[in-house]
Amino acid sequence: MALADLGTPLHSVEFVVVDLETTGAHSTENAITEIGAVRVRGGEVIGEFQTLVRPVGSVITPFVSRLTGITNGMVVDAPVIESVLPSFLEFMRGAVLVAHNAPFDVGFLRAACLRLDYPWPGPRVLDTVTLARKVLPRPEVNNHKLATLASYFGTDVQPDHRALSDARATVGVLHGLFEIYGTYGITTLEDLSTIRSAGWSRRRRKAHLADSLPHAPGVYTFLDGSRRVLYIGSSGDIASRVRSYFTESETRGRMTEMVTAAQEVSPLLCANVLESRVREVRLIGELQPPYNRRSKRPDVRHWLVETGDEFPRLSAIRSITHARVGSGRFIGPFRSAAAARDAKALLETIFPLKSCTQSPRSARFTPCPASQVGRCHGPCGGEWDPDVYSESLEGLRRLFAGRPHDFLTGAGQRIAALAEQERFEAAGVARDSVGSTLTAAARFASRHALRVIEEIVGAERRADGGWDIAIICHGRLAAAGTCPPGVSPLPVIEALRQTAEYVAPYDPVAPHTTDEETDVLIAWMSNGTARPVRSSRPWCGDPAGVESARAAWMSRFRAAH
């Protein structure tokens, strides 16, 4: 190799990290109002550039002023871009240009050069958004905004929508990203543009781990040198799926890290693809592999539960227990605690629910402040008859039972009232809460539809003419098998029924930690090719039919609101 082939070490490269504030998002219609830049090399700051710019032919709107803190009065005496641009071009000469969401900043700079007839120097450009997406996938950070990454890396300066502060924060993010890239062996400027190839070459060295794996359905586990489980997956062809982790098509940064640490891949053969998916869900919940994101902590979910008080109210909880859902009236799970709280607030607006935790029989009871604005009913609202109060909640209980007509009617009225008051943001939150509430209700109803069946035998025709067979009891997979082509599946089904795993009877008021497994089975039974062979009770033909009804409800609801 020649010395030139070694590349340019990152610590010897000079970077100019730039951030612009503008009057808008379009480089051809809006103007620059502030330029901030930091020149760094080897982790040290060697210069800074900052100036306000008086926009010509464009004004700073109140929205932009609130966002950036820059007002028209602040830039009235500032230099125009014609005076500022030559100085900045000289400041960035010979350096690699860096920006967060670089197309935006570079677009404005290029447009300014074009308008003033300055040649664009064409520097090498790095985008910290692109760099972050390659090594920090979404599950690891909520998003790739500058503020999020600055908080993740703990930068010395936090972004505040002023150009120099944001440029300083981007410097900290850039250095944090370089540290991560260094763990992948990326230490030169040239490597940054070929990180996918570099990551592929490292993964490729582990391709021998897939050599002895079977071409059959099952679960595969990646293990490290101490046989600790790193990652669990499933496939209809274990060997082919595992081999894909060592190809260039696998671009997830966490998977590159996982494959680099893996020393062994262990297969667990299954009768068919359905069994492999179910066993994957069970094993992830049991073993908690560090590189799996889904299926972890299946016992932690967010629910809305009607309390069993004399004057019931809604409670947003997680990890429900049998004692807490004794009334049998609950809805969920929701995707997040915030979604559950928003749904609770919406339901308390639509239905005359007691929202405070006071006991009406307490000697210290007094109407709560929420009752003064009509947000807390029952004793706080003057209704002391438990039977009358209970009757007023029939619409809520119909929602729990999968009949959302009253809920949708009330939600429509609530959103219309907010829109009439021009509270459009609150109306949007209410609309989203309608969707999450209906989704939770539909999921619960479809799971209930499968769990009430003591035993159902499902079969799916394979491409070779054989059958994949599953014995499902109370929403759990009790047995799985296959039947070869040209052979009657009935003896196979009977054998599977005799050797099936015991599943406890379904208790509708007990919490369930097998929701994801039940969802896998519902998806299989509803895929259009699997069909019931026998069932202990009448089969509706589509246990996820409530989900289709939910989609129809939401379509009509969104069209009207």
Which characteristics define this entry?
15 strands; five-stranded mixed sheet; 561 residues; 40% helix; four-stranded antiparallel sheet; alpha+beta
Shape category: flat
> How far from one another are the termini?
67 Å
**Which strand order does the major sheet show?**
3-2-1-4-5
Query: Count of helices?
Result: 20
Q: Largest beta sheet, briefly?
A: 5 strands, mixed
Assembly context of the chains: single chain
Helical residue percent band: 40-55%
Strand pairing plus helix content: what structural class?
Answer: alpha+beta
Task: Please outline what is shown here.
The chain is an alpha+beta fold and 561 residues long. The chain is built from 20 helices and 15 strands.
Topology:
Elements: E1 14-22, E2 32-41, E3 44-52, H1 62-68, H2 72-75, H3 81-91, E4 96-99, H4 102-116, E5 125-127, H5 128-135, H6 146-153, H7 163-183, H8 189-192, H9 195-204, E6 218-223, E7 229-235, H10 238-244, H11 253-261, E8 264-269, H12 273-287, E9 302-306, E10 314-318, E11 330-334, H13 337-350, H14 386-391, H15 394-400, H16 405-420, H17 424-451, E12 456-461, E13 467-473, E14 476-483, H18 489-498, H19 515-525, E15 530-535, H20 545-560
Parallel strand pairs: 1-4, 4-5
Antiparallel strand pairs: 1-2, 2-3, 6-7, 6-8, 9-10, 9-11, 12-13, 12-15, 13-14
What does this protein look like?
- This protein has 561 residues and is α+β, with helices and mostly antiparallel strands.
- Helices cover 40% and strands 17% of the residues.
- The chain is built from 20 helices and 15 strands.
- The chain has helices at 62-68, 72-75, 81-91, 102-116, 128-135, 146-153, 163-183, 189-192, 195-204, 238-244, 253-261, 273-287, 337-350, 386-391, 394-400, 405-420, 424-451, 489-498, 515-525, 545-560, and strands spanning 14-22, 32-41, 44-52, 96-99, 125-127, 218-223, 229-235, 264-269, 302-306, 314-318, 330-334, 456-461, 467-473, 476-483, 530-535.
- A five-stranded mixed sheet has the order 3-2-1-4-5. A four-stranded antiparallel sheet has the order 14-13-12-15, sandwiched between helices. Strands 7-6-8 form a three-stranded antiparallel sheet.
- The chain is flat and about 85 Å long.
- The chain starts with 13 loop residues before the first strand and ends with a helix.
